[in-house]
Write a structure and sequence with these properties.
Blueprint lengths: L9 H4 L7 H36 L7 H24 L2 H19 L4 H29 L2 H32 L3 H5 L1 H22 L12 H19 L3 H17 L15 H30 L3 H21 L9 H24 L5 H29 L5 H30 L5 H24 L11
Helix pairs in contact: 2-5, 2-6, 2-8, 3-4, 3-5, 3-9, 3-15, 4-5, 4-8, 5-15, 6-12, 6-14, 9-10, 9-15, 11-12, 11-13, 11-14, 11-15, 11-16, 12-14, 13-14, 13-16, 14-15, 15-16
Length: 468
């Protein structure tokens, strides 16, 4: 089933299992605190990892601390979605939180780099399950009119650590040691779990298990898709026949594994859920691939300082926050699919501005910051609206599966498009023309986001419950 009728009201008409006001407030605070923990950890660890690598040695394992985190998230997202449909979101949420806590404790106590990398894999598994189940909890615990505002708060919890995470992590690492960057989150996460425990138990008690779908959890498909995406990144670094062969094998494996993780008709970009998933994969992938190379382009191509390059990214984060706020306003009299389309157009315009400043001899920090702010504004509109569209288009029995498809597609899109950008950069940068290399790189990411616009037009009408 692709998602019900064209307006996607099947799930919207099913009233969620509402809690009383006190339980709802406690649940909301607990959910936000949990999101903030995962977001802070994902940002802060980049600041603490260099010191951890110096102390533990085995620097050759450094990149695996990040790669295995992403792999763990992809695996757990696919599994948690199916488990959430069968048993409700509370059980996999509790399991994910427990695994994430174990990963934090193990990372802080890691005696070797190998143990730290293993802990990061556990954190990825726990964080992926938490992110997935939090979205399902929002869908069943809050009415449709409140969900858009909750997405705004979630976005703020993800964006704020980008401002405060690096300096706080640096201060903790300098004064207490890198171990405490992991351990300091444990009390906050426990407090969040305690706040949300009673309302979550109430939701669990009322859950009616879905016994109509006995299909197996696609663990093999998730693992194969993640490894194939990593293979594409490796292929982008191997220029020549070996890279081409590796890339071809990775593409074939993706075509085999990805449809098992996505809604029906995904490869055809069918209207409804499949088109929504395509927009998230391409928009997020293009945005984060550009983010990975934008500071480097400003430093190498424009001779700016790291502080100036980071300032452009910080300003862009403000655009994301504003976009997320706007999509929840009741005066925004657009359907949810139209909001996604406007967000996609803004992101394409912003990325095109980034590409223009890379090509133009007079490109400046402010031009990059303006482009990045417009792109971030589009992300704020599009990312929140895609999650809300999936909630609206999904029947209650398939909400977990469809949410996992959305988040898995985002992770794969980030990996694949970043790998493509790396291949463009690696093939052109050795020639010594920075503007040429970065210019074509940003043209490539802009083109990938244009695919999202095509998918956005194929979604079909989706009701905007925030505007009634």
């Amino acid at each position: 089933m692709e998602g019900g009728d064209a307006m996607g009201t099947a799930a919207a008409r099913d009233e969620p299992r509402l809690l009383d006001d006190g339980q709802r407030r406690a649940l909301m605070v607990g959910l936000l605190a949990g999101v903030a923990c995962v977001a802070f950890e994902s940002v802060a660890v980049a600041t603490a990892m260099p010191q951890a690598a110096r102390e533990l040695g085995s620097v050759d394992l450094y990149a695996w601390a990040f790669t295995l985190f992403v792999l763990g998230m992809v695996l757990s997202t696919a599994v948690a979605g199916r488990l959430s449909d069968r048993f409700g979101p509370v059980l996999p949420l509790a399991g994910g939180t427990t695994v994430f806590l174990a990963g934090l404790l193990l990372a802080g106590a890691a005696p070797t780099m190998g143990v730290l990398v293993t802990a990061r894999f556990l954190q990825g598994i726990g964080g992926g399950a938490m992110n997935l189940c939090l979205m399902v909890v929002v869908a069943i615990a809050f009415d449709a009119e409140r969900r858009a505002a909750i997405m705004t708060w979630f976005s703020m919890c993800w964006v704020m650590p980008a401002f405060i995470g690096p300096p706080v992590a640096a201060a903790i690492t300098h004064r207490l040691g890198w171990h405490w960057v992991f351990w300091a989150l444990v009390p906050l996460l426990l407090a969040a779990a305690a706040l949300a425990a009673r309302p979550l138990l109430e939701l669990s008690r009322r859950h009616v298990p879905d016994e109509g779908d006995a299909s197996p959890v696609p663990l093999w498909a998730a693992a194969l898709a993640a490894l194939s995406a990593a293979g594409l990144q490796v292929a982008g670094q191997w220029l020549g026949w070996s890279g081409a062969a590796t890339g071809l094998v990775a593409v074939v494996l993706l075509l085999v594994s990805v449809p098992r993780l996505m809604p029906d008709g995904f490869l055809r970009m069918s209207p409804g859920l499949s088109a929504v998933v395509w927009t998230r994969a391409c928009q997020s992938g293009a945005f984060f691939a550009t983010e990975a190379f934008l500071p480097l382009s400003l430093v190498e191509g424009r001779g700016m300082s790291l502080f100036q390059a980071g300032l452009a990214l910080t300003i862009g984060s403000v655009g994301w926050t504003v976009g997320s706020w706007v999509q929840a306003r009741p005066w925004l009299r657009l359907r949810r699919d139209q909001i996604i389309q406007v967000g996609l157009a803004c992101t394409v315009l912003g990325l095109a501005t980034i590409a223009f400043q890379a090509w133009h001899p007079a490109g400046s920090l402010w031009l990059a910051a303006i482009g990045w702010t417009i792109a971030g504004f589009g992300m704020g509109l599009g990312v929140a609206s895609a999650s809300l569209a999936v909630m609206t288009l999904s029947s209650p029995a398939r909400l977990g599966r469809n949410t996992s498809s959305l988040q898995t597609a985002e992770g794969l899109g980030n990996s694949i498009i970043t790998g493509l950008a790396g291949a463009v950069f690696g093939s052109l940068h050795p020639q010594g023309a920075e503007a040429h290399a970065f210019g074509w790189l940003f043209v490539a990411t802009t083109a990938c986001c244009c695919i999202a616009i095509l998918a956005g037009w194929r979604i079909g009408p989706v009701a905007n419950e925030a505007a009634r």
